[in-house]
Write a structure and sequence with these properties.
This protein has about 280 residues and is α/β, with parallel strands linked by helices. Helix content is about 50%, strand content about 15%. It contains 14 helices and 8 strands. It has a 4-stranded mixed beta sheet. A two-stranded parallel ribbon has the order 1-6. The protein has a two-stranded parallel sheet with strand order 7-8. The protein starts with a helix and ends with a helix.
Length: about 280
Amino acid sequence: MSTQNQIDYERIAKAIEYILSNFKLQPSLEEVAEKIHLSPAHFQKMFSDWAGTSPKKFLQFISLEHAKNLLKEEKASLFETAYETGLSSTSRLHDLFVKIEGMSPAEYKNGGKSLAINYSFSESPFGKIIAASTEKGICYMAFENDTHKALGDLQIKFPNASFFENRDEFQKNALSIFNKDWTKLNTVKLHLKGTDFQLKVWESLLSIPMGKLSTYGNLAEKIGNPKASRAVGTAIGSNPVAFLIPCHRVIQSSGKIGGYMWGSDRKQLIIGWESSKVYSDF
């Protein structure tokens, strides 16, 4: 991803924020383009290149009505029906390709003293991202524009580990998940520190198909503990791997987007971006 891609993402985020804030006024393409200092034609092309659809269609994907409809479908099926009807490999991306392995107690004992962690900074369709990996797989990914803060947050997770700025094959393969063509994607291996319950919740997130949404309550049902909605929410909130573990697909039962560790605006953009990828396949 180039610096221009980062600039485009920031402009798109600003445009969406403006449209949502002025939705009742139905701002025109020209008006939105002017707000981000682009010509209407340039804005339309830039947006379509990024999202794969028009600004107007994208807004439908992030509307409250669309979210409610997805939740109705999800509640009726609890995922199984979606699989039986044969969703494309695009929509099942995370379930098919992302595999989680929990760290042993020895691996994260004393703040990860035995771990050697490689890390690198990249750009994604949703802003700058840090990816970190052990010899077994990705242990951390986060959206963060400030590289110093990004590294500091990683070091807090593993205070006694050894860190090396190096983009290894685990990271390259993981970052390829942002590409539009996933036919050559290898299995993305995650090596995560977490309790048995957290790992179970994170694995359950992988079963939410791309372009679909779920709620904390439905996930609690999915893992066989329907009274554990709050605990599920806490586990989701401690997800150490942005996007690869799709906690952005969990929203409030009302259909509202809700919170997100890396910003609710970014969450909204990811949901819309994923929907545009999935529904363009049908």
